[in-house]
Amino acid sequence: MDIAQFRSSVAAEEPPGGLSGPLLALWYDAKGEWDHAHQILQDEPGEDGSWVHAYLHRVEGDESNAGHWYRKAGRPHSQAPLTDEWETIAGALLATS
């Protein structure tokens, strides 16, 4: 699946099958379901989950908490517009899935 297909899938009622936890969280975030996206990441280990977790806290407006998750992800604290960061993360995760 490429980024355009992933973005288009958000119009569906259910996410595509086979998505990793971090991609599933991004899918729900794009649908405006921040709480559901955040819940998915509560038990998601690894740097990819931490990267999406950081992004979600930026969406929430909690830059301090986002910083914690960027450090766990080994990523710099993003200052990009949120839509751009979503695209960057989704593209990177899709490329490795």
Walkthrough of the structure:
It is a single chain. The protein is mainly α. It has a single domain (19-95), classed as Serine Threonine Protein Phosphatase 5, Tetratricopeptide repeat (Alpha Horseshoe), CATH 1.25.40. It contains 6 helices and no strands. The termini are close together. The mean pLDDT is 95.
Task: Report the CATH topology name.
Answer: Serine Threonine Protein Phosphatase 5, Tetratricopeptide repeat
Portion in strands: under 5%
**Rg value:** 12 Å
Q: What's the CATH architecture?
A: Alpha Horseshoe
Q: What ranges have pLDDT less than 50 throughout 5 or more consecutive residues?
A: none
CATH class, please?
A: Mainly Alpha
E-strand count: 0
| Structural class by sheet pairing and helices | mainly alpha
How many distinct domains?
1
Cα distance, first to last residue? Answer: 9 Å
Question: Assembly type of the shown chains?
Answer: single chain
Shape estimate: globular
Largest sheet, in brief, is: none
Task: Name the descriptors.
97 residues; mainly alpha; 66% helix
Summarize this entry quickly:
The chain has 97 residues and is mainly alpha-helical. The protein has helices at 3-9, 21-30, 34-41, 47-60, 63-73, 82-95.
